[in-house]
Amino acid sequence: MTDRYAQAVNSGFTKTLAKKLGLPRPAILRRHRAGDPLTVGPVLVLADAASKGDADTLAQTLLGWDLDVRRDPHDDLRWGAVVLVLTEAAEPTAVTEPVLATGSVLRALAGNGRVVTISRAPADDDTPALAATRQGVDALVRSLGKELRGGSTSNGVVLTDDVEVAHPSVVAALRFFLSAKSAYVDGQLLRVGPADAAVVDGTGWQRPLEGQVAVVTGAARGIGASIARTLARDGATVVCVDVPAAGESLATTANAVGGTALQLDVTAPDAGQRILDHARERHGRLDVVVHNAGITRDKLLANMKPAQWESVVAVNLAAQLRINEVLLAAGIDGLRIVSLASTSGIAGNKGQTNYGFSKAGVIGHTRATARLLAATGGTANAVAPGFIETEMTARIPFATREVARRIPSLAQGGQPVDVAEAIAFLASPVAAGVNGQVLRVCGQHLVGQ
Amino acid sequence: MATRQTTAATTTGVRDAVVIGGNRIPFARAGKKYADASNQEMFTAALDGLVARFGLQGERLGEVVGGAVLKHSRDFNLVRESVLGSALHPATPAFDLQQACATGLEAAITVANKIRLGQIESGVAGGTDTVSDAPVAVSEGLRRALLDAQHAKTFQARLKALAKVRPADLKPLVPATDEPRTGLSMGEHQAITAARWGITREAQDEIALASHQHLAAAWDSGFFDDLVTPFRGLTRDDNMRPDTSAEKLASLKPVFGRSLETPATMTAGNSTPLTDGASTVLLGSREWAQAHDLPVLAKFVDAETAAVDFVHGHEGLLMAPAHAVPRLLARNGLTLADFDLVEIHEAFASTVLTILAAWEDDDYCKNELGLTGALGSVDRARLNVAGSSLAAGHPFAATGGRIVATTAKLLAQKAAETGRPARALISICAAGGLGATAILESA
Fold first, then answer.
1. How high is the ipTM of this complex?
2. A376, part of any domain
3. Which residues form a coiled coil (chain B) (predicted)?
4. A264 to chain B: which residues are within 8 Å by CB?
5. pTM of the predicted model as reported, rounded to 2 decimal places
6. Domain that residue A246 falls in
7. A297 and A422, same structural domain?
8. What is the residue extent of each domain of chain B?
9. Is pLDDT at A418 greater than 70 in this prediction?
10. I need a labelling partner for A131 at 20 to 30 A (CA). Which of A408, A420, B256, B305 fits?
11. Secondary structure of B140-175 in the HEC alphabet?
């Protein structure tokens, strides 16, 4: 599960050699550690003329996090992040000045730096000029992500018209993108809607899931185990679910996170009820369900056996739907459902018609479930991992794996914890305004959005 | 006339001890999947699975009690060492006990009684055994020489001590399950008992077949999903033969009782194989279970042990439970018909059959057990309904924990299905003419 190439080009003689040869050098990504500063340096807040008020508000928020906040791009600093506020920009020319100002500091952006835009989502009644301005930010963010070096990323928070820039979910999304928790999230825009969300401040950011009960399926190993650990770190009591055959690793995960192990096949007809009963009877409540359990049975469609199609759809999609039905019927206030989609479910992948169908299906049901949950303050979101370094991807043939690693803008695979951090953010109460979204954790893979 | 002992009722003035759940690792045929696993590793795994199932990480339990029958001298504090290696709080006390195949049930009795008396609020009972990693002793001659050399003050004295070793001394003493006082193996003993009771080969094979079929059905239905945690890649009991048949069992050659005058009836199919494994059961007071939001499967009602004089007397080695159960029933005012489930450890299929036959025998019950007549019959439909040792295997000290946890879950299911309380009888025979029995009721 180690990326030897990335290690080699970042250390010793092979580093010098790689530099001389002009080889691509994937950066060592900075990941979250308790106590580390939020950003790698001062934060520059820029805005177009109309958005100055919103920029001021956000600058105040950033100051509240003890960041070194500046408003002048001419300061001679090694920048940790640029926050580009374009919320009130109404025509394309309005963004010229702040965007070019952003460009002027990119050479001074530190490694693992951040560019985060704050803008508004196009709405049906936008004028053509307004719609153009708002939509333009989309590819501005994604293009910039492809230009950044040294592990720096570019992401955006997109507000619907009825959301203030000070909305807790906007602030939380901004903080997530600025932090090391989003190390492998690049070129992504996250939409925030108007749902009520509690304000978080001070130490609240350290354990956002305190007192909550979370269920993670497929928790025995890999990404699932990492999700369980991350949710537990954020304060949740975690019910770790996996098939009985994976019970040994499942027990290890459960004991590591101080949760409980529930040996259960998610495709069992009563799986939803058993999950709900276990959480409520043993832990008194249920707040978060992470549908992580998933399998691959890759085969070209021409060669695909019925069992290969059926089992993938049963585990990856049908099981989630059936469990969600039980959860929805239970009428849980503020329930957070986060499902694992995949970039294969967005862009498709040769030999993965079954997997792609199931993962695109997850995206579909997530959007539909989001509408159903909104009434009770709940959310349903999906995370779409790209190439993540796991036991599963370690089995991919060398050449294929090496290509898959270098394609993303960050030129490397992600770690399970990168997926887990995104899920922990979406599962937190403060993310109430993020609903029905698909957040890619793919290091900005070339394909799809 | 046998010695009929009646103990004073123990059910007054004490509180309930309840079975919360259990966890074991799949049982493995000796020399297979767990060939390299030690008792400590297996028991720790069984404990850790239990901790994970019930979220007991860092919890200080009242006591962990368990043991092993085949135990290395290095494992002098086996259960405590396992606790220290587990996710339980290191301040959880523990001790080892040993009563041959009844070790696990005796551990459960011990923990339940401590809870009932209010000495502890919670506890784990269990056991582990490995035939694959059994201790091997050195010969008496080599042992003496090594000890002398150890104590020698000079190099020359050490050489002199070691020079006493003869080639024959280098042959290791492999542990045997033979009875020390008779030199007969358990199987040979049971063959004598079975012959005396006229137990047929067909009846034994029928018990064995039912064991495999019941166990396989239980596995297939997911019954063991919350009773077993896989270990070392083994996810089911590998002794189980779901596809066995009466014909296959009938084709096996007898292995015990071949020197008897009557036809030998005991085969590898209707005798338990040597097995590796470990099991645990979580018990607690009702208050403790409630405070920890834990389920309650069954109440540990009462227990009785017995021993028979198989050396000088005429009683079979494995017949002690036949004596213990009538005493247990009398004390609790129950008859065999009052039990919804009966779990009789299948040391051999013929053990189950001789015990059942003995209880149905008027003369035996009068003369040997001191009763006024036959104790009664056990409805076969209530016997070992989820399979037992013949199919699952029998890692000696781990069998009690397997049976108590399985029975408690069966009782909870039965009570939930019928809407009325259910009761179970557990009977385990052991080497040395020992037997341990217990009553569990749905909570």
1. 0.89
2. yes
3. none
4. 225
5. 0.91
6. 204-441
7. yes
8. 140-170
9. yes
10. A408
11. HHHHHHHHHHHHCCCHHHHHHHHCCCCHHHHCCECC
